[in-house]
UniProtKB/TrEMBL annotation:
Keyword Transmembrane helix part of the UniProt annotation: yes
GO MF, any single term: acyltransferase activity
Species per Swiss-Prot/TrEMBL record: Goodea atripinnis
Protein name from the UniProt record: Lysophospholipid acyltransferase 2
Alphabetically ordered keywords of this record: Acyltransferase, Membrane, Transferase, Transmembrane, Transmembrane helix
Name of the gene this protein is made from: MBOAT2_1
InterPro entries, per the entry: LPLAT_7/PORCN-like
Keyword Cell inner membrane included in the entry's annotation: no
Domain of life: Eukaryota
Record field: transmembrane: 31-51, 63-86, 106-125
Length: 137
């Protein structure tokens, strides 16, 4: 019984919202994800008002969006967010190194292979039921 209760609250992301998770009786990773989605919607309005293209440079807009996105990914998924960076780096490398006529095929194969490998590892190596939200979604 104790193992089951620790399993439902296990999360690699932030534990800041643990009290909310306990009050709502929802897994912490789902609470983190929903809160991040709501914060992203709110920050989209802020982004549009204060970082409008007529007011700021594209570089500043890209930096703010990247930092905010990385923070949300780390908040939700913890160190699993490194998989986002690795997969993006792999496909970006393919886009740089290959020609336009085959780029989409190689990116699709690499992205699906990487996600499939991660999912198979998650199912057979790690505890499959540990997290209800994972990065392969």
């Amino acid at each position: 019984m104790a193992d089951e209760s620790t399993r439902s609250t296990a999360c690699t992301g932030s534990s800041l919202l643990q009290p909310v998770s306990e009050m709502t009786n929802l897994p912490l990773d789902q609470v983190n994800f929903v809160v991040c989605q709501l914060c992203a919607l709110i920050s989209a309005f802020w982004f549009r008002i204060f970082l409008h293209p007529s007011k700021t440079s594209p570089f500043i807009r890209h930096v703010v969006a990247t930092v905010l996105g990385l923070y949300f990914a780390l908040f939700c998924f913890g160190w699993y967010a490194l998989h986002f960076l690795l997969q993006s780096g792999l496909t970006y490398g393919i886009m740089i190194l290959t020609g336009v006529e085959h780029m989409h095929k190689y990116c699709l194969v690499v992205a699906l292979s990487y996600l499939s490998l991660c999912q198979i590892t998650r199912v057979y190596v790690f505890d499959y039921g540990m997290y209800s939200a994972d990065f392969t979604g």
